[in-house]
Structures are given as structure tokens and as C-alpha cells.
Amino acid sequence: MKSFYTLIKVRTNQLSGDSLTIGVVVFNEFKFKVQFSKQKISTAKSLVDIESKFFDLIIKEIKQNLESSNKDFDSYKNGLLNVDYKFNDLYFDYVSRYSNGIIEFTTPKFIALKNTENEFSKIFSMFVDKSIFTEDLNSEKKIIEENFHKRIKTNLIDRVEEKVHTNIKLDNDIIPTLINTFELDCVGKNGVLIGAKSISFNQSKDTIHKNLNTYISIIAHLSKKYQKGLDVNQFFLIADEPKVNTDEYRLWNSIRKEDDIIKVKTSEESTSIAELILSKKASTFIE
User: Fold this and answer.
1) How far apart are the C-alpha atoms of 210 and 216, rounded to whole Å?
2) Distances from the Cα of 203 to the Cαs of 22, 141, 225, 249, in angstroms?
3) What does the pLDDT read at residue 82?
């Protein structure tokens, strides 16, 4: 099935013919997909002599018309009658030639891609706004981070917060070598020190290294201050497995294999840290 695309432009200068691409429509015989760039729309509003509300109304109408066409096709497709209801490139060719307002459509062009969400994003990035991938990536990272910390709270913090220090911020009053405050997810003592620090491996390698080095320094200081050997204390690094074949994965895997000063647990496995704290009857000790 052939797919076509048409660019949605704003005429920023009627005399020179200058224009700004603000969106794209990809369509085949049966379906439309449309997307606009918020950033490009904001720029267009500053360049053309048109009221902002009216501009937004035009964009809204374009979206609604295309979405309505998609719904109409679904109704025909799922109905009892076999109606030949198809879109083709002539539709937007007509719109392109007869659009005489501030919004214009380019002549439809064939593109050798399937009309899927992933490939639609690629087209949008190529012709309209590359930031879509950045936005999607940031959104995905945010969801991963939120779920990571939710699991730790459920599996560990909620179970031990009345027994040991949780989400404790250490400063140079407690650790003289600290320049900035550093937060541990939990730490307690009963015979030995038991603690955990969560570090997301979705950060840069340098940031991960910095946090790891600070964590190890804190472990060494607490062990010396409370006269507990590094070989008997039990400190954990809570870190989910990053993407394979990345620098972050190689670092994560290296720490996991060494398993000496700190032991690696995933957020799902952090429940075992709670069980250890409870079984050892660890308690608070930092004043």
C-alpha cells in the first residue's frame, strides 16, 4: 500500500514566499497521521500577523478533520455495507492547489515507508522537528526513573523506615570529606553496618562514577568511625541493568561481578535488603 506525505507550512511572508514548516501529514488509502511542532507553531505566531487564538483554531480544525476522516473510514470498514471508502494522494493535491490562506499544504509526495507510529516519527524528525526524539527519550527516561524509585520505596523503604535511617542526607558534619550532601536510601547497625544506595544507570558514565566513588568513600569512613571491618559490613548498590553493549552496562556488570565492598541488587531484588535488615534487627545509630 502506497504512503504519501504532505508538509503543513505557514506563509511567513506573502511577498517573498517565505514559509515555515510546522507539521506533517502522512497518509495511505485508508489512514491519516498528523503532527505539529509546538516549537515551530510558537515561532510562526511571532512571524505572522494573525491573532494567536485564530491560529490555534486553524490547527485544531485540521486535526479534527483528519481524525474525523479516520473515524469515518473505521465506520465504513466495520459496517455491514461494503463501501469503497479510500483516501489517495489526489485529496491533498486538491487541498494544496486551492489553499489560499495563511496555512498551506505542499504537493503530496510518495515515501517508501509504512504508515506506522515509529516511521511516522522518523518522517516528522526529518521534515519538521528533530526534538520529537529528544522529547520521547526524556519522557521514557522519566517513566523508567519513576518506576525504579517506586519499586525501591515499596520493596525496601516502606518496610524498614521505622527501624533504620531511610533517605538520610549525610553532610560534612557526619563525613568530614564530603563537599556536598549525599543521600543514602537506608543505613542501620547491629553488630555490622547495613546500608544501600540507589543509583540510576540511565545517567552519564561520569555521573555514575562520581556517585560510586562518593558512596565507597562514605562506606570506608563509616566503617572506620564505628570500627566495623569492610569485609563484614553489608552495603548494597541498587541499580537496574542498563542497556547491553553500553559503557554503563559494562560498568554495572563489572561492579556486579566483583561483589566485594558493595553488592549489586536490582530494584526488584531490593526486598532482600529489607529482609536482611529486619532479620539482623538493625537500628538507627547516627545522631
Assistant:
1) 10
2) 32, 10, 31, 11
3) 46
Residue given cell 502522512 in the structure block: 26
- Cβ neighbour number for residue 248 with a 10 Å cutoff: 19
Residue 138's CB is within 10 A of a number of other CB atoms, namely: 11
Residues 157, 161, 167, CA angle at the centre, nearest 5°? 65
A 10 A CB-CB count for 34 gives: 20
**pLDDT tens per residue, range 162-183:** 999 999 999 888 888 888 899 9
Answer yes or no: is pLDDT of 268 > 70: yes
**How much is the pTM?**
0.55
Answer positive or negative: Cα dihedral of 95, 96, 100, 101: positive
Pairing of strands 192-198, 103-105: unpaired
> Cα separation of 165 and 66, whole Å?
56
Which residues, at least 6 apart from 208, have a Cβ–Cβ distance to it below 8 Å? 199, 201, 248, 251
Separation between Cα atoms, residue 280 and residue 189, nearest integer Å: 9
Q: How do residues 94-124 score in pLDDT, each as one tens digit?
A: 555 554 567 888 888 888 766 566 677 777 8
